[in-house]
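Problem: given the chain below (453 residues), write out its structure.
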Amino acid sequence: MYIIKTFLIFAIITVSTLPCQAKALTLDKAIKSVADYFIKVLPENKKIAVRDIEAVDHSVASYIVGNFMNRFEESGKFIILDRQNLAVTQAEFDYQYGSGRVDDAKQKSMTRQEAPDIIITGSLKAVGKNYQLVISSIDLVSNETRQQSRTTQKPGNLMTSGLSLDASVYQVLSDLGKRVVQKTVVAIGEISNTQTGSTTSLSRWLKNSIETSIAQRNDGKFSVVSFGSGEDALIKANFNQAGNDVEVTLQLVDTKTSAISSSGKFKVSAKELSERNLSVLPQDGDAAISSDVYWEKQKAIEPYKGDNNKIKLVVTPNHNDRLYKEGDIMSFQVSADKECYIKVTYLDVYGKTRVIFPRNAQSKNKIEKGGTITIPDTGRFRMTKPYGEEIILIAAYEKPFGTSTANVENVTAASVKNGLKAKGIADDDFGEYSDEGNMNPVATTMFRYSIDR
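Solution.
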């Protein structure tokens, strides 16, 4: 709260709008109304951080923060900073504005890359029989503040699904924390559909909710860092259809032993998924993919499941949660326990495939025994539209092969029905030639990832 008080003191321009409400709104309608206002008036392409919200309890605060983050993200107008980056930013701000040893110009330049341009903060407090939701935006560059206020009903009068998803995440994390005897540094791991391995809009929401819930906790059991920053454990999540509902499992996984040290489960109703516009299947552009098209695509890539591998082939993406935003850079490492030569095929949102490695005769696609290579070897893979799920397919061969990248196929529903199933991909993508003629791969693997705004 220190930084917020400081900025309010030094605010030069203040724009305040406090409309009187004749009738108390539900919390969801109040949040939507306030979010719509800020989405309309705040400048586009700014980095926004939704800070801690003071509320009646942690689950309500978590619900408000998560709801605002999702609405700002869905607008496509802003860059939403993940919760795990805000602790670093907060510490930097506390030093800069608290020590008095850094001048204004240097403060801005030092934090330009990591700090948000705008902070969203506020509170939900009881006022008589109702509650008052007060949300402020604070522009850290111009010092301009804007404020919106709405009268709401008591949080207990929320929609039927209410706080169940947010509160469930918070409760499970609290239970996991009780089993930890000392402070544990964690990173967010893979969050995917158990049955398909896909990352979806529910994956992204769960990631935000996990980070928010940890930030709201005050027992000091967990601190979140970026993956690969010396974490003690990973918090992973998986979900699967359970009748009309979805069952979610959170796991605390030791990074040294890969053992699951503790876990917890909860269910999410179909009604709540619909109200939050969340899906257990990936997107196809801006909408969730249909079940029929999705499963047809899975049949087409079945040869890459690695069921008959003769060597150990492992792929590790640079985003362990496999969740990317537009503009992110993707890379991945491929390792093998025996010498081999690999080919990488890219399957896009719409089902088209293209060989992306090796790119040419200069590409070093040989993996030494027990070795690892990083892809791309030159250049960068930058995430762009369309949004949705894409898949990297990897095949390993015993001998070198040609480097033609002309192989482009279509794995849409129509082409699958026309025969491009498992055999089709095996014939077209696996069929490589060495000096000794046609050869098939000794191992395959794949990983799925999703791109969002």
